[in-house]
Amino acid sequence: MSARGGFGLLIRRRRDRRIAQVMLAATALLWLFPAWSALREALKVDGLGNFVSLFSNPLGGIPIWRTYLNSVLNGIVHTAVVLGVSLPAGYAFGKLRFRGRETLFYATILFLAIPGTAILVPLYHVTQELGLFNTHLGIGLPEAALTVPFGVLLMRNYADNVPDTLLEAAVVDGAGHLQTFTRIFVPIARPAIVNLFVMCFMWSLQDFLWPTVFNTHPEMTTAAQAVATFHNALSASPVDSARYSASLVLLALPAVLLVVFGQRFITSGLTSGAIKD
Amino acid sequence: MTISRMTFAVLAAGVVMSLAAACSNSGSGTDASTTGPITLKLWTWTGAPGGEAMKRAIDAYTKDHPNVTITNTEVAAADFKAKVPLALKGGEQIDVLAVQPSLFAEQIKDQLLPVSAWEKDMPSGTMNKFQPLALEQNKKLYSDGQLYSVPFGLSGSAVGFYNAALLKELGVQPPQTFTDMAALAKTLKDKKPGVAVAVMPSGADSWFQDEFALTLAGQNDKDFFNNVRYHNGKWDTPAYEQALTSLRKIYADGGLDKNVIDVDYAGAEEKFATGKAAILFNGTWDSTLLSPDFRKANKIALTSVGAMPVPAVSDPSARSLRSFLDVTMGIPKTAKYSKEAADFIAYVTTGAGADLWSKNLGLFPAVQGWTARTGDPSFADEEAGAKTIQALLTSPHSDRNNMSAFSAEVGKKVLKVIGGSDPATAAKEMQDDLDSGKFN
Amino acid sequence: MRRKLPGEGRTAVLFLAPLFLVYALYFAYSFWFLIGTSFTKVSIGFSNAVAVGWKNYRLLLTDPAFLTAIRNNLLFAAASIAVSLTVAFAIAVLLASGIGGRRLYYAIFLVPALTPIALVATVFSRMLQYQDGALNQGLRAIGLDGLTEHWLTDSGWAFLAVIGLLAYLIGLPIMYYTADLAALRTDVLEAAVLDGAGPLLIMRNVIHPMMRSTHITVTLALLLGSFRAFEVVLLSTGGGPDNTTEIVGTYTYRFVTSAGSTIGYASAASVLVLIVAMLVSVVQVLVTRTKRGASR
């Protein structure tokens, strides 16, 4: 929408525009306050030296970049599994005719709200039996399990919007559903795939529960987990406390980058996974 | 339309591969040859006795045993209870494990080798070198009367560390009662505004509030905790209620500072270390603060620190604390080198290693004949403080044999009492929680 | 609509096989395991379990802390929904009106929502400390000492602190609204403007009702999310003071990670939480189905 027409009408008058600007700016300042407080603490005692020392002498012996890397590796497993499950399932629910389809679909999305903490006990057992403690698979799989209902919903919504005629021609031509799926549906679904991909990475980056419970090796620490790990590794010195604050600032960096470069995908990913028709 | 073979093959392969990948992490062999170079895997938690302290003992040991390398995995204390069972279940090689002497010990004993299996691998006479009380406490940990770990270090709680330089500057003696504390708070308010009279782990670390309340309860009834712990005694006794009532009053009178009850462990340490609190209450494990070397290495700028018992509500002669084994050492069944592990355990518990890791205080070794020293006699307050703590540890009012999750729960309720809620109700709730059995 | 082809059912089974596998392993097995464990007293080693019948459930349903946790979950969800339907909506509309610095504003509101929640909660807990926290220090610096509070240790304020923290994470609702606003027909607005209605009135009486489906989307997303985010409480108030801000996530987590034979109890809590979570989902599915039916 341009500023002239559409919602621009709302602040057509100069006075309204001023008020809107002031209100937005004030809210934004309020939102920046926690960030400012974190930065302020991060610069205490040693100033920028806090940040520098995190690289030469990392807290708890875990370099920050390593925690990013671990989050990314978990994110790869997470994304791969979610895509591998959601794409064919979305296709099936959206484009195949079979008995009990609607029931099965709604049964699938019943699991949208399952909290990780509620299945912590059994997944602990499963992860242990599979020998997956301290592996990226061990973190990525439970993350994926919790995301799959959302992924299926997103892909089904997408498949719903792909015209039947587009696929029908191929099916009638004698191409199997697998060919239709891989040659036609998957390429068409690329926007949805990209969206889901970004969302999975974002959630891996945010995941605190599984790494905290399933990782015992410091070198497996993820970015979200590090918030607690670093804190537990603190000694009594004021220097360490400031260094911890500095590490918090650094741990927020990937989110800033994600917003700067991936805002578009997140917006469309969220909205296409919404429960709507 | 039929399913093409191709479709089936691809999907089936996918399923099989994911299963295979999931199962590929198999266990490792346990047999070991002891001639070549070996790596002992030691697992401890922060403060047991601490990475730097343990390193001194490890370095000296590996110097004498060139074929041995020792890695120390230091798990954050808060994570330890959750992570170790996980690692052991996962078949992780752990040769020497620091075993927390609480319900935790009983919980993992099935995964430990009994001491009888490796006693022979320690130098002869090792078992006779432990302090008898420590060995006695160690036995209480395991329900079947067997020993699965040996004493390593002792600690007690709660105790006070004071900024000796600051008190001297104010011309105030270390407080003996909470009336003294309130007076000190007044003096501080006039002469050092912004400095809290005392600080202790609280907020997210409210488990310490339980420790502190129990220390006060011990002033009213020496046997209170042991009665609960070993004889099915009541928690909501008049003595305990009295302690909660006193605690609430102490905060109201200014003997302790309500404004710092949201400070967690690290925050409390930092406040004391930076001179923003005159007194720090914590466990004796924090006695590293008495070590000038430790303070220097950790950039703590306090020039002199002393130690004292938690002040009395009324009678100073009742001041005491609860003490217990804090760390014991065991050998898990997942150990690869149990023989070498036993030798190393003997070295750090009763051998020369004990003096090395305890050089900066913190944990006190459970070996007979050890005396607390700060390493520099010119620091009089510190030397006296170390002696005070050692004396307190040997004459506790009760065992600090904690009940894990229950302790944390109690801590939260103590905080609420400090905030103004009714002590009798709180004590009753704690009793109910204890009776329910859900915390142990 | 295309007719059903022979053999399509079997194809569907194949396409759904990975989904079945994940659900079987992670959900079906989990539920079965939880139900079994919930009738025992056992430690995390899962050995030497003792059967205790319905005792764990009895304890749970009589534990005020657990009931508070469930109530808090719903209250916190309600609070963040309320904030989203008002503040997030207003921000989204203002940003859609072509005000300067849009991208910067989006970034400011979105970054907190994408940062690890554990981190945001930690920053908040440090910011809200009574003595050294930035908030009280800020208030003291501008002479408003009277406004300083024990944000984390006073029951009422701690509750508000968690709500404030949830409000801080409204970036995603803003995004939902932004996306749907872009698709909204604006000719109604022009009519309203011609009628002489002010901006506030238009926002409240014209745009807000038109966004009904987005409101539902936002409400459901937040309701679902509220069961998942437990770090918000764990790392800010820790559930305190004395469980006043406890939610089901922190309650269960506490029992799972503590030493002792608390796993049976934690499992019973999990079963009850799952039942509540599924009920919420059923409501959501019913709402969706009605909408779907209505739109056809």
TrEMBL record, chain A:
It is a multi-pass membrane protein. One of its GO terms (cellular component) is plasma membrane. Keywords: Cell membrane, Membrane, Transmembrane, Transmembrane helix, Transport. Residues 68-261 form the ABC transmembrane type-1 domain. Gene3D superfamilies: MetI-like (1.10.3720.10). It comes from the Bacteria. InterPro entries: MetI-like, MetI-like_sf. The chain crosses the membrane at residues 75-93, 105-125, 137-155, 184-205, 244-262. One of its GO terms (biological process) is transmembrane transport. It is found in: Cell membrane. Signal peptide: none annotated. PANTHER family: ABC TRANSPORTER PERMEASE PROTEIN MG189-RELATED, ABC TRANSPORTER PERMEASE PROTEIN MG189-RELATED-RELATED. Belongs to the binding-protein-dependent transport system permease family. This is Carbohydrate ABC transporter permease. It comes from Solihabitans fulvus.
From TrEMBL, chain B:
Pfam families: SBP_bac_1. The keyword Nuclease does not apply. Keywords: Cell membrane, Lipoprotein, Membrane, Palmitate, Signal. Residues 1-21 form the signal peptide. InterPro entries: Bact_solute-bd_prot1, SBP. The keyword Signal applies. PANTHER family: ARABINOSE-BINDING PROTEIN-RELATED, POLYGALACTURONAN_RHAMNOGALACTURONAN-BINDING PROTEIN YTCQ. This is Extracellular solute-binding protein. It comes from Solihabitans fulvus.
From TrEMBL, chain C:
Gene3D superfamilies: MetI-like (1.10.3720.10). It holds the Pfam family BPD_transp_1. Keywords: Cell membrane, Membrane, Transmembrane, Transmembrane helix, Transport. The keyword Transmembrane helix applies. This is Sugar ABC transporter permease. SUPFAM superfamilies: MetI-like. Residues 70-284 form the ABC transmembrane type-1 domain. It comes from Solihabitans fulvus. One of its GO terms (cellular component) is plasma membrane. It is found in: Cell membrane.
